[in-house]
Amino acid sequence: MSLLFNKGPNIKFQKIIKILSVIFFFVYAFSISAFGEQKFKKISIFNYGIYLTYASMFCLLIVVILGFIFLKVRIKIHPVSLIIPLFVIYAFFGTTFYSKDFRGWLTLLLLCFSFFIFVYLYRILKNKFTIISILTIALFCFTFLYLVYYGKEIFNFANFFSGQNRLGSDFDNQNGVAAFAVMAFGLSLYLILFYNKKIRFLFSISLITSLWVGLTTGSRTFIITSYIVAAILLFFFFSKHKIIYLSSLVVLTVLTLVIFNSIFENRLLIAIQTLFGNAAKSDAATISRELYMDYGILLGSRNFIVGYGVNGFGIISGVGTYAHNNYAEVLCDFGVIGTILFYLPLLVVLIRAFLNKKIDKRFIVAFVVYYFIASFSNVIYYKKLYYLVLALMFYLAYEEPFELKEVLRIPSLQKIIIVCDTMGSGGAERVISTLSNQFVTRNIETHIIGIGDTLPPQSYYNLNDGIIYESVVNKEGNKKNRLSRLIFLRKRIKAIAPDVVISFLPNANIYTWISLIGLKTPHIVSERNNPYIDPKSKIERLLKKVSFVFSDGCVFQTKDAMNYYPKIVQKKSVLISNPLSLNYIFEAIAPIKRNNVVLSVGRLTEQKNYKCLLDAFKLFNDQNHNAFILKIVGEGPLRDKLIEYSKEIGVYNYVNFVGNDKSWHEKEYNDAMFVLSSNYEGMPNALLEAMALGIPCISTNCPIGGPRELIQDGVNGYLVPVNDPFSLANKMNEVVNQPSNLFYNSTRSMIKDYSSETITNNWISFIQGLTREVYE
Fold first, then answer.
1. According to the model, what pLDDT value does residue 5 have?
2. Rounded distance between C-alpha atoms, residue 215 and residue 572, angstroms
3. Which of 229, 322, 565, 696 is the most buried (most CB within 10 A)?
């Protein structure tokens, strides 16, 4: 049904009503936790605190009425919420025939009435984070007052941790105070994890005070319920990061066990042993709770339908107190039907939260589970805080369905930091230089930070004068230790304040991820090689994978590389090829005749497998009467070994180890063929550039799939198996027996598709398309 007082919105009263709503909601939430029905020994004025609860509730009622009159606010009361007054009506029958505790029943009626007042009040306040923040601040004020009230007693850990001199009886019983502390802890943690404002970190103060208060009560239930609430909220926070969640859960579990075993002096173990009857030292509290629960269930079974009414257990049993277990108490007081009616609203909002994606299930799941667990050690059916929080659950489930929105993180790209190891002669460094030069020409302030560089920083490839390139080194020119590099990198990122940080290669990805912890700067990681074997260390590979999980975006060169990572990474990833960075413009005219040169470009390392190339070249050149020269452009640690091997197999006189040459494109574009013999590659720049030059290309079909992303076998080049010199030699012979314009037209068209301008546009589109999740 719907309640609507059709008065137009009165702007004059809107702000006043909302301010009053905040004030009296805060006062009520504070008063129900800070002022119980106990007699305060130290401060007599506290004894009047109970009246503050009723006064604030009366004021809230006035505010709701004013809001109903002067604000055009539509409130929907779902039929399920009528179960709550139905529960109260049902409780009336048992109260009438048995307990005769009509004062307690009237309190239950007022609590039911307060439920609907709060649902409407939340509708006035509108934002769930506002509501939860006010409630959290009110509970924080309670915890602060509590710590001040008990003064030096709160530091006497030994007494209340061992079960002696447990604090809290001046406010409520110890378990009641512990219940408030759990709620303050859970609400604080919820805001810290899910509130999208910077102020959320201030709630860590409330988190600490609530933990402190809970421990001073000596309540084992406090530790158990706090652990469960934290585990649920962390589950939702790390829902996309299972490894991180499991790690945090392990840490949380260890801390909880340490508290139980060390601080609580094995009280949990004694309680468990008492339940199973094999304790050397019995726990009186556990025994009494067990007896109360058993007696409550027994009495409830005797009047199974309607129970004995409000406070029925205390009156009918002759014990004179409550059952210390909500299930037993409700069953005894209201029968099985009353028990179903009491817990049904919790079950309904829980089910609705899971069925409707627009509902904030994080809050509902955490606190519904909390109330089901708290029911084992507390009687909650007459607790004011229970109805206040239940109203919030109904509001979230039926009044304020939240939407997950994607909000752009970088609407305007003005400043970039690129983190790398060095700016040497590798393929990743070529990509960095090309992109950086393009960024600067587009008026994007570009910084390059080399975490493995030496002083002064030098780039093998030409960098635009507008690029700011610096390295992480000490004054003597030596690299700093790992911690110093992290600190330096973090300081530079904070000082430069870029719109985005992009990292290339494993070390840079790991260092950048760690340096950005706690900062809101978006981080894009880039995979440039075979992730299955690069880096070689398993620990570094794991850390690199974690850096991808926590990044805001990932750039891959091939699908195979992307498939190495979990789906959580793949969902925020994009495939962007390497840009062409040719400095020489060639006319699109196919050569009439090609030089008798076999060209290969790359570092002289195991990855490039030049040994296989030398073997294949010997087979090929022998069949062609030694008419060809093999030119290898590049430097590396295997240079001397490769020279010796070329002498050993008899091709040394036909092999030219050129060394590094940035301008090879201008000299070798008319060569007979280009050969790549690698064991594995990302997206090989040299192959891409050779194809764009129109040189016939042969490559191994190596992981992680870069060559086959570029070459369609037999259409614009040839692919051969890895480490197979015979297949490679056969393809080399096939190339020289074809016309000189072999593959020319199909590969020259790559210039446009892989131009530095096109690839840079793809990078900028991906960066500016980064989004963050905002719950509203």
1. 34
2. 42
3. 696
